[in-house]
């Protein structure tokens, strides 16, 4: 009977962990980040400030996220993830509720800082850390599946938030209130009851490790790889950190796709698809996350690296050179979305491939910190480039950035061979 109960636990509880990752991305992460833009105009109008001044809270959020990552990576190695991730949900849900009552822009900046601390746990660290601990097979698929729900949540909740905002002058307040409650209700039951820090806490082993041991591959079942202190002294670590930074710089051109479409005044039909182009990229992002995870599992991380950067370069090239064709533009946006997916899927998978699982969350938190810092200022950087040079030069820079990302990823993988087996 005991063996039967254990078997049931072995078959079901790891998938509760996956469900927790999905709900964390679908709920708090999407509500805080993927839906932020719909509030810019109504809130800045109500507060009597410019949209840029109000949007600074997003920069504060991402900088706070980057600063928090190294500390949170260490905490995740030592503390109960139920406590840490539930606190992270509160750090997002409670500020969203409070934002419905704010009347000064500086209050949003403070709320953004708390939300950044929560996002560091939930968006950056939780999914790859949990999946790497609980699974030894199909790791890429499950990471990609969970991360895809940030985009799916964005699609769903942007519509919900839009309805609240359209309901009246203070509709944005009800929108924030609803978002905060949703963040708590959707995620807290899972972070409290759907996870444990390690499979051993439930008397289990990672999914897939049983087969590895049976085949004499005991190393696969154990935590392997260098310590964080050793990893951070290697060339592969520095190459990987710069890789993460360049990805976050390159993919943030996504924010300017509607502006690019709107700038094509010689093609009236193209102007009409400005929002559709961004949606095509979001669809590519969601599908790309799952696809890159599957490719990592079935082929190799090298194949995923080549596909994502290739899609980025080709997508940008198509949008640049074939602006008169609506299908070509949408296809280009979709391909660029696949490249966008590499930031949250490929970066953690390459980290695992190079450095193993021994101190994964500590190592990846440092890599992700570089990416988050670059992402915090990327939109402004692209804005200055667009204003100063126009879109043609921007596309050339973006294509070059995709090539650089590929070369940096290749350097990190080649120079880190053998480290994961230590």
TrEMBL record:
What membrane topology is annotated for this entry? Answer: Multi-pass membrane protein
Transmembrane ranges, per UniProt, are 12-40, 52-71, 83-102, 108-127, 139-164, 176-195, 237-258, 270-292, 299-322, 328-351, 363-385, 391-413
Return the InterPro entries for the record: MFS (IPR011701), MFS_dom (IPR020846), MFS_trans_sf (IPR036259), Proton-linked_MCT (IPR050327)
Q: Where in the cell is it found?
A: Cell membrane
One GO cellular component, as annotated: plasma membrane
Q: Does the keyword Transmembrane apply?
A: yes
Give the main localization category: membrane
For this chain, one GO molecular function annotation is: transmembrane transporter activity
The Major facilitator superfamily (MFS) profile domain covers which part of the protein? 13-417
Entry annotated with the keyword Transmembrane helix: yes
Keywords from the UniProt entry: Membrane, Transmembrane, Transmembrane helix
A Pfam match: MFS_1
This protein's source sits in the domain of life called Bacteria
| PANTHER family for the chain | EG:103B4.3 PROTEIN-RELATED, MONOCARBOXYLATE TRANSPORTER
User: Which named protein is this?
Assistant: MFS transporter
Q: Which organism is it from?
A: Gordonibacter massiliensis
């Amino acid at each position: 009977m005991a063996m039967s109960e254990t078997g049931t636990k072995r078959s079901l509880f790891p998938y509760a962990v996956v469900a927790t990752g999905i709900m964390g991305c679908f709920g708090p992460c999407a509500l805080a980040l993927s839906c932020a833009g719909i509030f810019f105009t109504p809130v800045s109008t109500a507060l009597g400030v410019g949209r840029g001044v109000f949007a600074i809270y997003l920069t504060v959020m991402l900088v706070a996220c980057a600063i928090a990552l190294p500390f949170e990576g260490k905490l995740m190695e030592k503390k109960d993830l139920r406590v840490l991730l539930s606190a992270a949900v509160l750090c997002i849900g409670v500020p969203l509720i409070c934002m419905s009552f704010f009347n000064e822009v500086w209050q949003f900046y403070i709320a953004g800082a708390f939300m950044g601390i929560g996002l560091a746990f939930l968006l950056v660290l939780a999914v790859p850390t949990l999946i790497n601990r609980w699974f030894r097979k199909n790791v890429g698929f499950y990471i990609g599946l969970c991360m895809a729900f940030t985009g799916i949540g964005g699609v769903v909740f942007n519509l919900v938030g839009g309805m609240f905002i359209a309901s009246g002058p203070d509709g944005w307040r009800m929108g924030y209130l609803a978002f905060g409650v949703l963040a708590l209700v959707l995620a807290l039951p899972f972070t409290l009851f759907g996870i444990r820090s390690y499979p051993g806490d439930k008397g289990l082993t990672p999914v897939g490790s049983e087969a590895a041991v049976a085949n004499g591959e005991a190393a696969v079942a154990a935590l392997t790889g260098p310590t964080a202190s050793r990893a951070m002294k290697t060339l592969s670590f520095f190459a990987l950190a710069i890789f993460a930074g360049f990805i976050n710089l390159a993919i943030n051109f996504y924010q300017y796709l509607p502006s690019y479409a709107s700038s094509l005044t010689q093609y009236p039909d193209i102007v009409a698809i400005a929002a559709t182009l961004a949606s095509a990229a979001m669809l590519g992002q969601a599908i790309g996350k799952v696809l890159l995870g599957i490719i990592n599992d079935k082929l190799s991380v090298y194949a995923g690296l080549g596909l994502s950067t290739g899609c980025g370069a080709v997508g940008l090239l198509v949008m640049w050179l074939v602006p008169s064709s609506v299908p070509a533009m949408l296809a280009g946006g979709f391909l660029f979305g696949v490249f966008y997916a590499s930031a949250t899927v490929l970066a953690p998978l390459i980290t695992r491939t190079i450095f193993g699982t021994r101190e994964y969350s500590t190592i990846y938190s440092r890599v992700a910190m570089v990416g988050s810092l670059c992402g915090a200022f990327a939109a402004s950087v692209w804005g200055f480039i667009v204003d100063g040079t126009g879109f043609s030069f921007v596309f050339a820079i973006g294509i070059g950035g995709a090539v650089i990302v590929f070369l940096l990823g290749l350097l990190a993988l080649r120079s880190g061979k053998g480290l994961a087996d230590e």
